[in-house]
Amino acid sequence: MFLSDDFGIDLGYDTIKIYDAKEDQIYSISDRAAIRKKGGVIAFGDEAYALQGSLPKNVSMQVPVSAGKINDVMMLELMLYNTLYGKRKYLGLKPALYFAVPSEMTEIERRAYASISNRGKFKNCEVFLIERAFADAVSLERDPFTSRGIMTVNIGASAASATVISSGKVILNRTYPVAGNMINESIISSVRKKNDLAIGYITAEELKRSLGSLGDIKPGGASVNGLDTMNGLPRDGYVSSNTVCASIRSVTDELIEALTDFIHRIPPQVLEIIKSEGICITGGTARTPGTQSYYAEKLGIPVVVSTDYENAAVTAIKKLLSDKVIRDYSYIPASR
User: Fold this and answer.
1) CATH class of residue range 144-305
2) What's the whole-model pTM score?
3) Contacts of 238 (CB under 8 A, 6+ apart)
């Protein structure tokens, strides 16, 4: 579809999403790496994610990216390099990497992105940054430059971010540690209390996806495997939909309380536009059935949920590349 060697990359809150413009494909990997304490990578990406809860004592799980902010540049380079070259052997003479980044970043955090192209495996690349809130707005057919009021809420795994854009500028931004992972932890805690059963993170994630809802609750429940909290022995258990949905609503209400305070800080003239056009919600946690009506009722403002919630940012970069306006939305991070 495209002749250029351009890549859209959203480091996200739990999963790294990559759009390959030349191949016109979107793919993703988990942002985790399993590393021996004395050095050496055992696994990264989806293979590392599958090891959660079963790591030996001499192996730790590390995350090179946290809420879109780079913790370990070298580990991120390794993951991106292996992922990109695993899909195609040649990236071009001077490929461009367009990173969707959170608005709430310091200059030092932005420089970490610039360092990717300064050395190592991507030293021939160009690096550009795009505000993730801008990308989320574009994915929902909103123009961040002409609109005088857009509010986006990206609810990922490790964090949720709320951003207000007016006439091409971010005027308000907050990040909250209330999102999908916290829901999983709440489900684990609830199952332990109600079923005397210890389940793992992956099991909690599966329960959330199969039974979770912010709308009508599915009847019944699901059988799971875990450890009896009384004797520590493996056994089967049955978790009801009510238990899962109550956990989801508890965490969601906590986020809604934070968003209510956030909304009170929006300038009145901008808020009026947001009320008429609706709040844009994206992110993997937005997949929960009933999200749109639940948030709209609790916040008292119309809500629009992206149909491409997980890939909203890279889908927007795809659109901007196709329309040849990507450079109008992006900027080069300062290297020092």
Assistant:
1) alpha beta
2) 0.85
3) 195, 221, 222, 223, 224
CA angle in degrees (0–180, nearest 5) for 151-126-308: 35
Strands 150-155 and 279-282: parallel
pLDDT score, position 335 = 66
CB 117 within 8 A of CB 126: yes
pLDDT in tens, 300-317: 999 999 888 889 999 999
Tell me the residue type at 67: A
Residue ranges covered by each domain of the chain: 6-134+312-329, 144-305
Which residues neighbour 167 within 8 Å (Cβ) at sequence distance 6 or greater?
145, 146, 147, 148
Query: Is 2 a residue whose pLDDT tops 50?
Result: no
- CATH code at 6-134+312-329: 3.30.420.40
Instruction: Let me know if the fold of 6-134+312-329 is the same as that of 144-305.
Output: yes
| Mean pLDDT computed over every residue of the chain | 88
What CA–CA distance (Å, rounded) separates 215 from 226?
28
Report the first-to-last Cα separation within the chain, whole angstroms: 36
Mean pLDDT of 151-161: 91
